[in-house]
Amino acid sequence: MKILKNYMEILVLQVIDEVLGNSNEEICKCDDCRLDIAAMALNNLPPRYFASEKGEIFSKLSLSHLTAKTEVLTQVTKAIMHIANKPRHRIDKSVGGA
Length: 98
Ligand SMILES: [Zn+2]
Prior knowledge:
The chain is mainly alpha-helical. It has helices at 7-22, 31-43, 59-63, 66-85, and strands at residues 2-6, 49-53. The protein has a two-stranded antiparallel ribbon with strand order 1-2. It is elongated and about 40 Å long.
């Protein structure tokens, strides 16, 4: 059985892990924040849907889409900065304002 997949979604999540993995800055890396970052980046990127066998491995795809990756990296970086500045949870101390 085939299912619809958005290649951009896979690529965005991959890039987020790469960027967060290489970052020493204080960016929350929990699933909530990763998904917030992914959603924000994906809203600024064109979808790339394809039909795929369920459970198929996508590692090959990533190598053939280096051009898309540059654009993904730009949007992911923007989204990370936005989320890092406006964390929606784990606010231990009220800093007031905002
Ligand atoms: Zn978080």
